[in-house]
Every structure is written in C-alpha cells, then in structure tokens.
Amino acid sequence: NNNKHTIIYIYTYTLITMKTSTTALTLAILAASSQVAVSTLEDKHGLRRLSMSLNSKSSKTSKNSKSGSSCLKAKMNASNGYAGDVEGTIEVCFGDLSANSGSGSLLMKVKGLSELVAGGVHIHAGTSCDDTISQGGHYWNTDVLKSGGPKDNGDAWFNMASSLAPTGTGYSTDEDGEGVAYFFFNNGFGYNGNVGHAVVIHDEVAPPLGNGDYARIACGILE
Q: Which of 7, 9, 17, 53 is nearest to 150 (CA)?
C-alpha cells in the first residue's frame, strides 16, 4: 500500500499462558530490525490481539544485509477443496551459514483467506500439495528435537508459544482476508532439510481457541 507497512497480529488467549519475558524478547527482536507500533484490537469473536505495524522497507534492508542468509519461498494456492482465491507467498529464511541449522524465520503474506481469523501456518513432511496425504503431517527432525514445543515432543507447529517458537506458529487475517505472519521457529532442519517440502495454511483454529475446524486450505512448495 501507499505507506508500505505490513500489519502483523499476535492473538492472545486466556487459555494460553505466554511468559512476559518471552513476549518482550520477541518484540525487542522485531523492534531492533524495524520500526514497530503496537496497539490493542479485538477480532470478530472479541479476542484481544496486538497489532504491530512494521516498516517493510527497513525490514527488507535488514534482511538483505544478512550475510549468508539462505531463503526458500513457496507460492501459495488453494488446496483440499478450499474455494477461496488464494494468492501470495511464504518465505522461510535461515541465517546460519552451515545451511543445516534448524533455526529460521517465516514470513507470510497471502490473500483470499477467511476474514478476521487466527489460523496456523506450518511446514509439513510431504513434498506435494495434491491432497492431505501428500502434504503429510508436521515436519520436524525427530533425531534432533525429542522435546520442546507445546506437546514437549519437539513439534513447534502450534499456535502456542514455546521454546521452539517464541510467539507460536500462527497467522491472522484482516477484514479483507489477507493473512500475515512473521515468527521464528526451530524444526531441527535447516535450509537443505526444508527444500521441496510443503508449507500449509490452516483455517481458523478449532474450539476452544476459535470457531473454525483448522482445515488445510492452502499449500505451496518451498523452493
């Protein structure tokens, strides 16, 4: 848009306990890389959320200045019978020069999703978007990550904060159905291990955290 800002929403639920120190650390990281303005809003279900406005120009400059940063991008399309006109990309970057570090960041900007909802966006084990079987389940290195995450099994791909994903691995949409996300994660695989894998967008989270069915509605392959 004209002011070149991207809006990122972090949903906060009373049923999820996020340590203040973790939230503060995440906001500090974001603030260090770009100008951040924070305000409190409510979605259509009355859930509180923090709206952070990031200057996309300064964010891009910071990204380009990362020597050795390796990124993968997936072009997202509707999947599994979803009727929305999905358009956009998801970019996953790894800053470690070894290309094998599991610590990365995920940036999502995708249109054609449900309006004013919180959903999930995850890397999956499959290498095709043909159907849910081809997409596979959550993808993480079980040889490296045997604990951590909301279920303490090494799986970071949940909308809840954990040691493997300080702000969870979710996204939120605006009134036009444009979904955005930016978060850090560790799935135990670096650039090389994530090449060719499916990245999946789930619709609104299921009860008690939301009113959706968390269906897989969009998919793309990381290249």
A: 17
Amino acid identity of residue 184, one-letter, is: F
φ, ψ dihedrals at 37, nearest 5°: -115, 130
Neighbour tally for 51: CB within 10 Å: 15
| Neighbour-count burial for 146-161, b at 16+ CB within 10 Å, e otherwise | eebbbeeebbbbbbbb
- CB-CB contact of 153 with 183 (8 Å): no
Is there a contact between 122 and 169 (Cβ–Cβ < 8 Å)?
A: yes
pLDDT in tens, 45-55: 444 444 444 44
Cα separation, 34 vs 62, in Å, equals 8
CA pair distance 184, 165, nearest whole angstrom: 6
Count of CB atoms within 10 A of residue 184's CB?
17
Q: What backbone torsions phi and psi does residue 49 show, to the nearest 5 degrees?
A: -150, 155
155-165 pLDDT, tens digit each: 999 999 999 99
| Residue 170 to residue 108: CA distance in whole angstroms | 10
Cβ density class 196-217: b for 16+ within 10 Å, e for less: ebbbbbbbbbeeebbebebbbb
Cβ burial 10-47 (10 Å sphere, 16+ → b, else e): bbebeeeebeeeebeebbeebeebbeeeeeeeebeeeb
